[in-house]
Design a protein that fits this description.
Helix content is about 50%, strand content about 10%. By secondary structure, the protein is mainly alpha-helical. A two-stranded parallel sheet has the order 1-2.
Length: about 80
């Protein structure tokens, strides 16, 4: 993970932690976040990037929820 990815990961982890502190009726909140890191209009169009991020959010939910997951173009194309 590069420096920019690490900073983005720290930011989204901070958001995830803040959401967990919000009051709720069940006293439990969480958020699953999917992130895509690539050059738009070079690698993919905007709609494709949104689709990838959405897919990663579902992966986060399916793997235990309340997580941040990065789309990894290299891993996906193997």
């Amino acid at each position: 993970m590069g420096t920019q990815q690490q900073e983005l990961f720290k930011l989204t982890e901070h958001i995830r932690a803040l959401v967990g502190t919000l009051p709720s009726l069940e006293n439990q909140r969480g958020v699953s976040i999917g992130i895509v890191d690539c050059v738009p209009y070079k690698d993919y169009d905007f709609e494709k990037l949104i689709t990838f991020a959405d897919d990663e959010a579902y992966i986060a939910k399916d793997s235990g929820r309340n997580k941040v997951v990065f789309y990894n173009k290299i891993e996906k194309e193997k």
